[in-house]
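= Tokenised fold =
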Amino acid sequence: HYGRGKRIFELARDGRIAEAILLTNQLYKDLFSKNSEVLFRLQCQQYIELIRSRQPAEALTFAQSELKMFGVEPYTRNSHFVETLQDVLALLCYEDPESSPVGSYMSLQHREATADSLNSAILGYQQMPAQAAMELLLKHMSQVSSVAKHEAPHVFDRLRGGKTCIQ
């Protein structure tokens, strides 16, 4: 199962969203029915990829056929869905969407975050931790290091100088 999930993640990370959705539906049949947030993110990302590839007519058709479901109940009860949908759809209005006020949706970091959310949903579906233990440890170490640098910078200065913390 690991290789399948990794392949889906790679497709999403590379902007091949339609393929990622198709493969996810084939391998994890009810994942999206249990996690509409991930489906919403992927559908928005597919629209973004159409904008990125300068296919406005296809993007509009896609929005009318696939994104319209997120503009009605029960999704409209969630302000996150409504705001995100408005922002993403607005990309079509700009000649240069990357520099627009909603241009952050066009970033590769946004695409990667979408791929990460799909990966986490797949891991959850498989009843595995959404993050690997090593990944959690590295995040924790990074956070501790950041706090320590701000709270006790002298400790790091002494360590860099080869001296012990106790003098």
Summary: The chain has a mean pLDDT of 86. The two ends are 53 Å apart (CA to CA). The chain has nine helices and no strands. Residues 24 and 151 are 45 Å apart (CA to CA).
